[in-house]
Design brief:
The chain is an alpha/beta fold and 229 residues long. It has nine helices and nine strands. The chain has two domains: 10-105, no CATH class; 114-221, no CATH class. The strands form three sheets. Strands 8-7-6-9 form a four-stranded mixed beta sheet. The protein has a three-stranded mixed beta sheet with strand order 1-2-3. A two-stranded antiparallel ribbon has the order 4-5. Strand 4 and strand 5 form a beta hairpin.
Length: 229
């Protein structure tokens, strides 16, 4: 996590409290919009406007509960940008107790990766296409030791049929952000280049292995010590 973040002003804190006062008073309306589809567009338009008073660049991701007895999770994200971290942390820490929602700061890394490694994962659906993470492979293009950032080549089985979609690369970045978590994504990913899957792929890694690969690069680099002889 980032250290030495800029402290919030009293005005920042007031804006965050105002947002939560609105959310608490309208929690049932927000819940009905999600669960029942009642006035969904209008409800979330109002919610977005209230969040803009805190920051125009912080966004919300809503995660559905796994079980019927669980709550929805409201995730506040700044897509890993350091300047937004203090406000995002405060949004989580100052959140009131809510009946239907849990609150989370930042997009966290995927924890359960078994289905992706076994190839039994469900595709991620977007507006015009689907991406199955287990079918995506990567190769290291460059690793900057000083900045700890990497450039990767990413290979998709259906790239040739998807490449005309302007939303393809942003959605790929969105997937990688969920695999790594937004902080690690912003810290480590420099560039992503998309390609059609090779007819005979060799030496490639599964996309789900990217966190382990980044850790491996760190370990290799940390073992290198300067010796004077």
């Amino acid at each position: 996590m980032y250290r030495n973040l800029k402290p919030l002003t009293q005005n920042n804190i007031k804006q965050i409290n105002t947002f939560w006062n609105y959310f608490r008073k309208n929690e049932q309306i927000i819940f009905n919009a999600l669960l029942l589809g009642i006035n969904t567009e209008q409800t979330f338009s109002h919610l977005a406007k209230k969040l803009e008073y805190v920051s125009k660049t912080i966004d919300i991701v809503i995660k559905a509960p796994i079980n019927s007895d669980d709550k929805f999770t409201i995730v506040f994200t700044g897509f890993g940008y350091r300047k937004l971290c203090s406000k995002i942390i405060a949004l989580e820490s100052q959140a009131p107790a809510l009946e239907h929602f849990n609150i989370q700061a930042f997009i966290k890394p995927l924890e359960d990766t078994i289905s992706y490694k076994e190839g039994t994962d469900d595709p991620w659906g977007f507006k015009n296409f689907e991406i199955k993470i287990s079918e995506v492979q990567i190769a290291l293009l460059d690793y900057n030791i000083a900045t700890k950032k990497i450039k990767i080549d990413l290979y998709l089985p259906d790239f040739n049929s998807l490449k005309h979609f302007d939303s393809l690369k942003p959605n790929i970045e969105w997937i990688i952000m969920h695999i790594l978590g937004e902080i690690a994504f912003r810290k480590h990913i420099s560039e992503i280049h998309l390609h059609q899957m090779l007819s005979k792929p060799e030496g490639l890694l599964s996309l789900i292995e990217l966190p382990d690969f980044i850790d491996y690069l760190y370990q290799i680099n940390s073992r290198k010590k300067t010796r004077i002889v």
